[in-house]
Amino acid sequence: MDYRRRRQNLGEKVIRALRLLSLLAVLAGVSVAQQSGEPIRPEWCRQLPRPEYKTLERVLDNEPWFEIYRIRPGVFAIYEPKQFEEVISYLILGEKRALLFDTGLGVGKISAVVARLTPLPVSVINSHTHFDHVGGNAEFQEIWNRDLLYTRKNMRGQSNIYLRDALAPERLCGALPAGASAKSYSIRPWKSAHTLRDSERFDLGGRVVEVLFTPGHTPDSLSLLDRRNGLLFTGDTFYPGPIYLFVPETDFAAYVRSVERLAALEPQIKLLLPAHNVPVAEPVFLKRLAEAVELVKNGKAKPQVTEGHREYLFDGFSLLLSGK
Ligand SMILES: [Zn+2]
Q1: What is the 128 CA–ligand 1 centroid distance (Å)?
Q2: How far is the CA of 308 from the centre of ligand 1 (A)?
Q3: What is the pLDDT of residues 128-138, one digit of tens each?
């Protein structure tokens, strides 16, 4: 299974070509880097940085793996631009406590970044337990998850071939941090210290954050709402890009209901903070997403069919379903 594709098909073709090239080079006993005099720069990587980042306030700009942006007072995006997923975790500060929404790939040490940003006690909530959002969980004591079979299975950690593939050369845009390697890459197991309930609220001191269960992408997908500030952290339920809805654990009917739940909040929302690609998106995407899933559900949208996937293209995002 091709694990991820945040980009369009053209990028994937280039990536496959590069992978083949690097395989041939390995067989010939030379590296592509040596041949060309520069490290492999996959096509997706050349398109970075994304223009949205230009207007954002960058902080701690000496971190080797992460890029950190202050999105709002007390809200930081912790972005991993050097890996194909371009995953984004969020640190949300109150006066007394902090919440970390996702812990990223586990390639760089996210707990060290968090410690540089706040001295407050930190609890972790995962938007869902796909590997790219839980990689740093084992670095923390206080992790709050749902108690689902699916979640419990992921809590055991992961060290399989697909995971190592996540750090293959064509999926990287720059060097791995010291101590990290594709060979040794794995997701360490973790324990949940508290079982989340739907609509549960956490008072961080001067800021209340609410958990909204939004299953679909995975059974344990959830969003975070800071109602007072109009901030909605959407996880993988929405991001501007191809939204992955093709893995076996995805339930499209559940996804449609979750999108409707979020879309009903739109009048109260000032900003969406997605878990991939860019940390800022206009709330109008909620309405567009709700319209899009409705069209797909009713068979009124025409997909592009490629490599076993159906991709439904919309303005600013697409829905990527399995071909079956
Ligand atoms: Zn995911």
Answers
A1: 7
A2: 19
A3: 999 999 999 99
Please say whether the beta carbons of 309 and 318 come within 8 A: no
Burial of 309 (0-12, 13-18, 19+ CB in 10 A): buried
pTM of the predicted model over 0.85: yes
Kindly list the domain boundaries of the chain, sorted by start residue: 9-322
Distance 271 CA to ligand 1 centre (A): 21
Spatial CA neighbour of 40 closest among 62, 25, 28: 25
CA of residue 95 to ligand 1 center, whole Å: 30
CA–centroid distance, residue 220 to ligand 1 (Å): 10
Tell how far the Cα of 241 is from the centroid of ligand 1, in angstroms. Answer: 13
Measured CA distances, 226 to 93, 255, 272 (Å) = 11, 21, 11
CATH number of 9-322: 3.60.15.10
pLDDT per position as a tens digit, 84-123: 999 999 999 999 999 999 999 999 999 999 999 999 999 9
**What are the structure tokens assigned to 288, written together?**
């567009």
